[in-house]
Each structure stands twice: as structure tokens, then as C-alpha cells.
Amino acid sequence: MTDSLNIQNRKYLGSKFRLLDFLERAIRSQTGAIGTFIDGFSGTGVVAHHFRKFAGRIIANDLLYSNYIVNRAFLKTTQDNASPDKLTRLIDGLNQMRPIRGYVYQNFGGTYFSHDNAGRIDAVRTRIEDLYRDGICTEQEHCVLLTSLIYAVDKVGNTVGQYDAFLKHLGKESYDDQGKHRIDSNVYKKLHLKVLLLSFGNHCDVYNEDLNSLIHRIKGDVLYLDPPYNGRQYVDCYHVLENIARWEKPPLQGKTKKFERSHLKSRYSRKRECIQALEDLIQNARAKHIFLSYNSEGIIPENVLSTILRKRGKLKVFATSYPVFGNGAGRAVKREIEERLFYCKSA
Ligand SMILES: C[S@@+](CC[C@H](N)C(=O)[O-])C[C@H]1O[C@@H](n2cnc3c(N)ncnc32)[C@H](O)[C@@H]1O
User: Fold this and answer.
1) Where would a tag sit more exposed on the chain, N or C end, judged by fewer CB atoms within 10 A?
2) Buried-state track 14-35, b at ≥16 Cβ within 10 A, e below 16
3) What tens-digit pLDDT sequence spans the chain (347 residues)?
4) Residue nearest to atom 23 of ligand 1 (CA)
5) Ligand 1 pocket by C-beta < 6 Å: which residues?
6) How far apart are CA 58 and CA 186, in angstroms?
């Protein structure tokens, strides 16, 4: 089983994987049995996935298509829509493909990826599309294969986990003369796709929309909200994965090679728009229990959050301190921030 992937085997800004116990305890203490659990800003999907065992039905949603694909793969695969044996065989084949000089090689070779891996990504991504077009894999299997590729790409990226910049020194040794870490040695390892560890179970619906639009068409017992809390746009941090997942091969701009993505920017990361966005969302939510994760360094002040939530019912706040790396200025210092979970029971 060493060659398989779990949903959490991915670096993602704001992933709640390490806070699942905290969320589980707080949410279950207030709700009792859960019919439908909604994870509205699902990111990696770890929260939705975790609550599968406590809810009859799951709804997960994220604005980024790359997250939608990953969520679909981990939440919607069943024995009826995908064959594990076939997927294992297809992944073996994909791992044996020779590099080609395509879109990724030309645009990201020598910066975000080694030239060899960029060429491998081209070959594998092209083949996944052909497998689907030729009817060799189902739509669900196509999502599963793409997810294997997204995780594999992320492992060999020449980044610190986000793609708003790439590291220098590609082509040099991993360590300098003083033994200082210069580049992650994974960058030089051959791209390798793994098989997803899937669990089957309750019914899940997965969406790829702005939650402020979707909210009018869904309802549930628990609405869990984990919006971006600072000015960093997720599409800027993950544009390379999003680009490879979409495979529309758009023209790219600037040194960091980003595509035109204004339609994928989030109001929750804009100081002047985030309060109005959250206010509309909470007003339109159709759920008995509303939970909102927001940390102490977020751009919406706590008194504003509280005022917005109180309009829907009595407010309670759960908190836990949480160690993070980095001080936001590029220094890898460890410090504690407070992760808060705001709860209101809709009147
Ligand atoms: C803090 S992360 C969520 C992390 C997630 N809970 C996890 O554990 O992986 C916020 C997510 O919200 C998404 N997002 C931003 N604005 C959105 C919107 N308006 N509607 C839906 N998703 C949005 C981002 O793409 C990002 O994945």
C-alpha cells in the first residue's frame, strides 16, 4: 500500500487536516445526527471527506476546478462508476510514458519543473485526455486519473508548495557547499502517479461554483464555511495546477507565467469586498447550524464577523491555538495563531 495516495497527501494553504479533531468535537457537540453536511469552501476536501462518517449526505464546493476534480475523485467514486483494477493498470501505463515537448515543457520547464518532468506532465496529461475521448475511461475514472496527476505534479514542483513564485537554483545540487538546503530533492525525482485510496459510502454532490451563487440552490443541516481569510488569491497560489487540470492551454503572462484568471478571483480575498460577500452568504444560507472557520489574522475583524452571524441566531465561539510556519515575510519561524470556529444556530 506504499504506492497509494490519501486525500490529505497534499500541501494546501489553510488545509484543515490537522484541525479535524477540533472541528469534529465542536461541530458534533452542537448538532447531533447530521442529515446533509455542506462544505462550501472545500479546498482539498478533507473536511467533507472526514464528515462522511457522520452525515447522511455531503455537499462539497470550491471555486477552483483543480479542487473540484480532486473532490469529485475522492467523494464520488463508487464501484459502479470506476474500476480499481483498470485504474491501477492505466496508472502503470501513464508512469511509463516518455516525455514530450508540449505546453508544460515550453512554459514551465526549467522554472516550476525540471525539463524532464515538464515533458512527462505533457505526455501524461495528453494521454489522460485521449483515454477519455476514446472511451477507454469513464468520466469518473478521468477525474481519478487527473487527481493522481495533480498530486504527482505537486510533489515535483520547484516551489514551496504555492505557485506564486518558483525557486531559483533549478539545475544545481540540492544543497550548497555549506550544506544549506537550496532546492527540494523531489524536484529531480521522476514524476510518479499513485493510485488513490478511495472509500465508498454515502451520497456526495460536488460543485465548482462561487458559493455566493450556489447557496441559493442548496440546503442542509450543517453549513461549514472556511473562506480565504487573507489577501492571497488561491488561484494565484495554485495557477499551475489549475492550468494543467483545465488543459485549455491559454497564453501566459509575466515571469510567473499566469493565465488570465480574473473570473477565478475570490471576493473573500479582497479587503473591500469580503464583508459584503460574507454578509450576503450568511443571509442566504439555508442551514440550521452554521459554522465558520476564521483565524485571528483574518482581514474581517472579529466584531464584524460576530455582528454578521448574530443576525441569524445566538453566537458561540470555539478556539484552539495552532502552530504555523513562516511570519509572512519569508522567514520560517514557528509561531502560534488562534484558529476560531464561529457557530450560530439559525433561529
Ligand atoms: C481556506 S481554503 C479551504 C481549505 C479547506 N477547508 C481544506 O481543508 O482544504 C478556502 C477555499 O475557498 C475557495 N474559494 C474562494 N472563494 C470562493 C468562493 N467565492 N466560492 C467557493 N470557493 C471559494 C478557494 O479556492 C480555497 O480552496
Assistant:
1) N
2) bbbbebbebbeebbeeebeebe
3) 448 999 999 999 999 999 999 999 999 999 999 999 999 999 999 999 999 999 999 999 999 999 999 999 999 999 999 999 999 999 999 999 999 999 999 999 999 999 999 999 999 999 999 999 999 999 999 999 999 999 999 999 988 788 877 876 676 655 555 555 556 778 889 999 999 999 887 899 999 999 999 999 999 999 999 999 999 999 999 999 999 999 999 999 999 999 999 999 999 999 999 999 999 999 999 999 999 999 888 999 999 999 999 999 999 999 999 877 655 444 556 778 889 999 999 87
4) 63
5) 12, 14-16, 41-44, 46-47, 61-64, 67, 210-212, 226-228, 234, 266, 268
6) 35
- Ligand 1: which residue has its CA nearest to atom 7? 15
Task: Among 41, 58, 208, 341, say which to mutate for ligand 1: greatest number of ligand atoms within 8 Å of CB.
Answer: 41
**What separation, in Å, do the N-terminal and C-terminal C-alpha atoms of the chain show?**
48
